Known about the structure:
This protein has helices at residues 12-23, 56-63, 84-103, 143-160, 186-192, 209-222, 238-249, 260-277, 285-292, 301-307, 314-327, and strands spanning 3-7, 27-32, 46-50, 68-71, 108-112, 166-171, 173-175, 199-200, 203-208, 228-231, 234-237, 257-258.
Amino acid sequence: MSTIAITGATGLVGANVAVAALEQGHTVRCTRRASSRTQHLAGLPIEWREADLGDPGALREAFRGADAVIHCAAKAAVIPSVTPELVAANVTGTRHVMDAVTEAGVGRLVHCSSTVAVGIADHEGPCDEGSPWNLAAHGLDDGYAITKHQAEKVVLDAARAGDIDAVVVNPTFMFGPYDRRPSSGQMILEVASGKAVAATKGVNDFVDVRDVAQGMLLALEKGRSGERYILSGQGHSYREIFTLIAGVVGRRPPRFEVGRRLLAPVGWVGDLMERATGREQAITTMTLRWGACERYRFTSAKAERELGYRARPVEEGVRAAWDWFQAQGMAPSR
């Protein structure tokens, strides 16, 4: 077995990659910032190293002696503009990781991108790895999508030039355990608290994060350098996924869908609040655009064919997330 260094292990994806790697017998070394909370991973035989994405030297020392690096750390924010913080974490931070991988003599890098770096379907079928990045044409090029697209390009360009052995994976919307902040699991908690009374009319692809973690380890083992692999699950409308979640948590599902036009005034208020406070808001014009998007569809046929990737029913990921929230005392009281 090999030694795998993982960035972003305090987040949903990185934590599940660390757990999956340990289960496969690998030695796992994870980076963290000095302020990071790691209690949710207490008891696991993880070797922790302090290394911020803005510190190339610390990253190099954290990676030294590792056989591979899986880069999961990123900053997520559905905001309309590219901020210095997004560039620093997602683009510059990825460059620092790549430099550290090369300088430390690490054999391979797996970069966790996102399907926001792929695009949305301009045709009847789902997007695949060859689809053009077209979010600007649909008004969906938010700061996170732009910087994830830029970071992915940095990795793929270097790999295709032969400067680094690197593979990119593009997960869809993930549910599962170890969602400490929470991130995507906030949707589950809102349904469980009774706050999700309506759904927008868009669609998304939902996947169990444990399948994504396995897919990343498969990409490490079998992925072709300079290639990217979509790791998707099942497509659902937001009303369908809210209904599925409601069945798991024992709540009444939303009874109706709401169009973007009806919610537009709420989005405008969110925009004003975001500009006034500098804090990301749950409902803005941009989040409503995403919620109304009916072309966000993907296929993982390439990953299935080349890596042996498989995705279980997403309900299992929702149930695992809900069980974990309850065990952590994060589930809302009735």
